[in-house]
Backbone:
């Protein structure tokens, strides 16, 4: 381990000043909100069209009105990203999950063995399906839909679970190909109760 | 097997007339070009934002100028989609590959065992990496990049190989969750030399 | 890809004129019927005793009176050969299946993901068992037999399903060791309705 | 465990007297030689054509002149049958191997972890290839042939190694589907040096 | 295979005379009882503290009063050690199992495919759980405990099954890292009925 | 998720006052040092002999003089425990690793994908071997030893790497069978630089 700062990505990181205006705006907005620029924004910036499509897709899934809470969507991200051994997604979305759910232990549980996490039976069914989409989608059959419906998930909810798992299946592969390094800030975010720590966004 | 037409997707297919104008335009354009509407356009249409992001991402990767030919990018799609057992992508992109490469046997070869396909050593290296991104991206290391560079692939080419494999890793999972059914037309496209068969686009 | 004809097998192909009479007769008969000599006949010919035993076994299983139709036995071949990534068997028996079942899409479906194929529940149960014999026969237990019997399969039918899967498990391994190349004719056979295409045998 | 004799097979065992003459002759000959009838002869007898083809194939591979000794072919059988968890083949061919090689420990070694067996480097290369044919034949490439040739194996020898592994791949699946029970005699055969034990054939 | 004696371990074997008194006493006691020194005692002796802890743990599990017979605990050892391909444990504990259960065939059955062994349904449930602990303990859930309780296993029995499987999971890894060679005596022990063979201990 | 405290283990936790004196002493000592009682001490206490052997073995490996630093041994624990999806070991030993190495990010890196961790090439070789012992020890061969020796590891170091991986292979299985819950304290330990946080031991 050298003392020099490890590379953020195997691929080029353009200067912010050279980026198209819409990318720069998006990046500055997230920096304003979070206090730092999550690496994924910089690592995709050398491909503006892919950057735009990636975040458009991300937002369409993660920000929409849904029968799943935003925290539940982050649970899917952490559990499936761990199965894909994606360092960036586990660490970054682990932080977001801790904050959204105000649950400082949950991300570590989901990242190690989602079967041991402090979640409801409905959330367990959600993650069982998300993991199947992530790891062996070719085996999905009508029985999976019946199980989810028995837990109260609508057809739209099932679409959301599967699509979040599929989107981060892509994201995990991109990040592993890049060797994308998570920002140090993520490791600690959401671990300390608000009354003890300074405010953090995501 | 009943005589009734099998469902195109497990999820709802909206009426074309109810879609936002830009989706309708895109769908009519592909119908004009291909002579039919590939199922994926209909199956994603109930989620307009996801539809837009999906095809924006698809086009950014598959239509851009690249050190990979469009045919080579379709080789990646067929080989990795077969590893993910995705019926829609293997059949639809197998058709596109046959047409783009004017190679009526190649898609069947790549879909069964890409190691037996009639391709160059450079294309074999491309597919070895694409399959690694698709199936065990967490093991990617610098050695993979050195191998690709020895075959003349630039850093941008390597990004393209990995991103196509990653994007269709998502697409395969979406299609398997939907149980998306390929259009019958795809099965025969590009199998018969032009002089014997009517013209086909993609 | 060179313009030179790719090798049919890694092992020697004897001249037809040098073969024992019974091998020559068998080969000429299949050529007469199909219009070409399927590669497997040439590739096994350098070992006459093994050639004889192979085709005797093949015919004993595939030609006998059975509770399974000949088309159903070909379904087993295509699905299990795909799991074993055997190019020759998927392509050659895919052709035979299309012709026997007059089902131009079925082989592509079974070769990609047999769970998505247009088959009856009884045929699905048949393929579930065939895939288990093919991929993890050591786990077979009485429950598998009960499931098959509930679908109306007799003890003899169950023997046939398992034996076809086992025989092609051997055949797939032989073909992959040889790198046996399927005849080009197979790729197109049975894809075009009879009224549009010239007659084809198998 | 009941005191009643466990079934030899899940499928019917015909009376010897009802069998075609050639099957009866073969069975009586092996009984004369070994002192008992190995179960596989009885278990296949209800299908005379398959019985004939099976043993014709077996003899063509296991009895022919070859660059592999008969003992080496049995090594392949034991190692690959263990990978396929086939009780009958491991126990029966373990016995034959002990006798052929006069090596009372070798079968137990190969059946547990062939990498730990008392064999030559050439035999280790033979088993590495046999295991690849048995477990992932779809990955075989020219490099495998070069490795074997470097150990002095001819093209015919490589065919033999692969064919024995492939044939017993079929046999293992048949035996597991039948739940074929090995004769008790096999368990002890070849374990005790000749001067201490009564003569045993195979 | 050379005529020279194969190494017992990849790591050093100290002279008996150089060992601490308690190790020497233990080793001489087992030699007195068995007629030879099982290799594991010699192979661990270069690390006296680990030797003491290993055998203390072993005895705590294997010698204690339990709802499992000593023979049943050896069944767990043989089945799980086979799944881990541990030559020493399969051969040595196979011998002990044959003697304890007076069942000359049982170890070969469990070492090849425990699903085919001559055991009771209760013992089958015990081994199903032991194999799950051994191969995919992360999937254990309350359903496993309910299944075992339905077969009459107490909470203490379930602890014992899991702990024996876990302890030999460690032991198998140590033996494979050492390449620990089983004593020749083990291969034959317990195979010949007492009236025919000289007395054997363990 | 209920507000009630989740169970520490599926198995009984005895009252401290009922324990043998030596167990009580050990438990009080660790509580004195760490400020809390790590769950594993309570969860093993219902089996005093196993408790003693477990911690004797643990200490023999983790506390001895070695060519591996204590921090390096904890790296092995975290990486292999993650491969075994053991929540307790990943969280508890992740905390110890952060403290020993004064490296707040390292445990998260090793727990997600050890190939991406900030470690030296020598430590990477150590973990490659540890993971092989943990996941497929049956494949270890002389080449593994040569690789480690080329990185300067002595025979004793190699023993230590393998034994730590093997011991925690047991520990992971025990913890998953118990569903052992890590103390909340571990999740945050070592994440905050000393100048900002109160002192923590292990």
Residues:
């Amino acid at each position: 381990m050298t003392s020099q700062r490890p590379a953020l990505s195997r691929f080029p990181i353009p200067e912010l000043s050279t980026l198209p205006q819409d990318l720069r705006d998006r990046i500055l907005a997230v920096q304003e909100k979070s206090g730092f620029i999550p690496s994924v924004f910089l690592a995709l910036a050398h491909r503006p069209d892919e950057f735009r499509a990636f975040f458009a897709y991300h937002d369409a899934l993660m920000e929409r009105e849904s029968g799943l809470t935003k925290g539940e969507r982050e649970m899917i991200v952490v559990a499936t990203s761990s199965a894909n051994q994606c360092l960036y997604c586990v660490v970054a979305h682990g932080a977001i999950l801790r904050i959204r759910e105000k649950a400082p232990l949950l991300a570590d549980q989901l990242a190690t063995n989602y079967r041991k996490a402090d979640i409801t039976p409905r959330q367990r069914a959600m993650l069982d399906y998300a993991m199947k989409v992530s790891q062996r989608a070719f085996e999905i059959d009508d029985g999976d839909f019946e199980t989810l419906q028995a837990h109260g998930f609508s057809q739209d909810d099932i679409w959301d679970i599967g699509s979040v798992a599929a989107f981060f299946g892509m994201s995990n592969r991109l990040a592993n190909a890049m060797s994308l390094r998570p920002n140090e800030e993520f490791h600690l975010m959401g671990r300390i109760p608000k009354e003890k720590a300074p405010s953090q966004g995501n």
About this structure: The mean pLDDT of chain E is 94.
